[in-house]
Design goal:
The chain is mainly beta and 69 residues long. It has one domain (8-60). It is 7% helix and 28% strand. The strands form 2 sheets. A 3-stranded antiparallel beta sheet has the order 1-4-5. The chain has a two-stranded antiparallel sheet with strand order 2-3. A hairpin with a 6-residue loop joins strand 2 (24-25) and strand 3 (32-33). It is globular, with a radius of gyration of 12 Å.
Length: 69
Amino acid sequence: MDDPEAFGDVDVRFLQPYQVTKTYLCPNCNREILPGTGHYAVVPVDAPDLRRHWHRGCWDGRKTRGARR
């Protein structure tokens, strides 16, 4: 799911490092988000089962990814 906003509004929650106890896979870079790493949980409002966990940099840079300079 490269663009969760394609499903409409999304709820973006920052998870503090102390809250993260599992390993997740970032859908942007396909790298693991390890326990103890702060990151975003992105939940499409109309499709909560499509929740994904993103690195902060991956989520923040998603709109400029592939842009030419």
